[in-house]
Amino acid sequence: MTQSSNHSITQSSIRVGLGIDFHRFAEGRPLVIGGVEIPYEKGLLGYSDADVLTHALCDALLGAAGLGDIGAHFPDTDPQYRGISSLKLLARVVAMVRDAGYRPVNVDCVLIAQAPKLVPHFPGMRKALSPILGLPAEGVGLKATTAEGMGALGRGEGISALCTCLIETI
Ligand code: MG
User: Fold this and answer.
1) How far apart (Å, rounded) are the C-alpha atoms in residues 135 and 7?
2) Residue from 104, 136, 123, 112 nearest 34 by CA
3) How many domains does the chain have?
4) Residue 3 alpha carbon to ligand 1 centre in Å
5) Rounded CA gap, 94 and 117, in Å?
6) Is 5 part of any domain?
7) Which carries the bigger pLDDT value, residue 142 or residue 7?
8) From ligand 1's centre to the CA of 134, what distance in Å?
9) Distance (Å) from CA 8 to ligand 1 centroid
10) Which of 5, 10, 156, 161 makes an SS bond possible with 52, Cβ 3.0 to 4.6 Å?
């Protein structure tokens, strides 16, 4: 049987991306998720502000545009990224995606956390993320679930974020 295709990925006007990230909790750190500082007894450990949601979003966008991943562009060995707001990294990622000829259509994200409650902070996260992404609030899907007590996330040892995005040619 002959395989035939007249469709090339580089000719596609839309592309999908997927990103996932994990950060463990640590004492004496602020908890920053989706650009929002959330009052809690501990924060996430990381070289930047450890914003797990924004990191997963960066990876989804980079993946969609065929640009690799966040670690390749913002290595944690580079002092300029120490303690940096991940919103600045996201802005740079969106600029890279635009330079590649694409813009975000929508993003959809799930946070997996046993605690704290994250849903009350979704409006603030949307307010922080949507202008950087160039999207209306309804273009930024946010959901949260627990891990039902299973595994490290279920024991509250950290938080994970999973994001998908769609981008289209400008
Ligand atoms: Mg990360």
Assistant:
1) 28
2) 123
3) 1
4) 40
5) 28
6) no
7) 142
8) 22
9) 32
10) 161
